Amino acid sequence: MNVFDRKVVLERGQLDFIRKAAEAGADGIEIRKELLSESDSLLHLKEELTRLDMFTVYSAPSEVWSEGGRLNSYELVKVFGEALAVGAKWLKLPLGYYLHGVSELAELNLFLKDYKGIQLLIENDQTPQGGKIEHLADFFESASKIEIPIRMTFDIGNWHFTGEKPESAFSRLREYISYLHLKEVALRDGKIHPTGLSAAKHAGWRMFQNRTGKSVPAALEFPIQPHERLKEFIGLARENQMEG
């Protein structure tokens, strides 16, 4: 959903843009909580997603761990409920303030047992608490030891916002990745901005998609103007996946 103009999506609602994504050839879409407008109904979104047979990811900016390393239980109940309401198979959230030895992983594991129909994905975001390699690696390694069913959304562009190298992050976290966010970045006016995928044969984004394998879904996560180019970028990513 982030490929579309944020202001327009908030004004018109996400329903119409689900259709646009499907018409451009997308297999699924990521519904964004922060882009839900007053006109959006989770039930109506679900009906349209079902009609179009679109795989659904629900994304929310709600951190799993609040400050102090406590499980953000109240917020998690809300976003898992919303994910169920929109028919999502996956729920993508940022890590938040996980603290080794303080955060109760067993509590998270118990919580997830009530939502076995939804796969929780943790994304590396653009914050110090949720976008550092070692912090995320510590969490995933600790969670895997007690077999918590959590996987990772690997955003190849977000690492630049936290001063990390995407290649190093991929090497460290590869075994946990189940979903890719594809984008490139550029420096403009001293700030990092997401940009479209280069069609060059040796573009950096291709390596990440190829090394994760054909079974790992990828999403476009950069603004596309005009929207008619969405089909072009979907085709580019799909072609690379098939060749990888």
Structural classification? alpha/beta
Helix amount, in percent? 25-40%
H and E order: HHEHEEEHEHEHEHEEEHEH
Total number of helices? 9
What gap, in angstroms, lies between the N and C termini? 25 Å
Shape: globular
Low-confidence runs: none
Quickly count the domains: 1
| Biggest sheet: strand arrangement | 1-2-5-6-7-8-11
Cα-atom Rg, whole angstroms?
18 Å
Strand content: 15-25%
Number of strands: 11
CATH class: Alpha Beta
CATH-level-2 architecture: Alpha-Beta Barrel
Biggest sheet: strands, sense, closure? 7 strands, parallel
The CATH fourth-level homologous superfamily:
Divalent-metal-dependent TIM barrel enzymes
CATH topology category name:
TIM Barrel
Mind sketching the topology for me?
Elements: H1 6-12, H2 15-23, E1 28-32, H3 42-51, E2 55-59, E3 65-66, E4 70-71, H4 73-86, E5 90-94, H5 105-112, E6 119-123, H6 133-145, E7 150-155, H7 166-173, E8 177-182, E9 184-188, E10 191-195, H8 204-212, E11 218-220, H9 230-243
Parallel strand pairs: 1-2, 2-5, 5-6, 6-7, 7-8, 8-11
Antiparallel strand pairs: 3-4, 9-10
Helix pairs in contact: 6-7
InterPro entries: Xyl_isomerase-like_sf
Protein name: Xylose isomerase-like TIM barrel domain-containing protein
Structural commentary:
The chain has 244 residues and is of the alpha/beta class. It has one domain: Alpha-Beta Barrel (TIM Barrel). Helix content is 38%, strand content 20%. It is built from nine helices and eleven strands. A seven-stranded parallel sheet has the order 1-2-5-6-7-8-11. It has a two-stranded antiparallel ribbon with strand order 3-4. The protein has a two-stranded antiparallel sheet with strand order 9-10. Helix 6 links the parallel strand 6 and strand 7. Helix 6 runs parallel beside helix 7. The longest helix has 14 residues. The two termini are 25 Å apart. The relative contact order is 0.12. The model has no long low-confidence stretch (mean pLDDT 96).
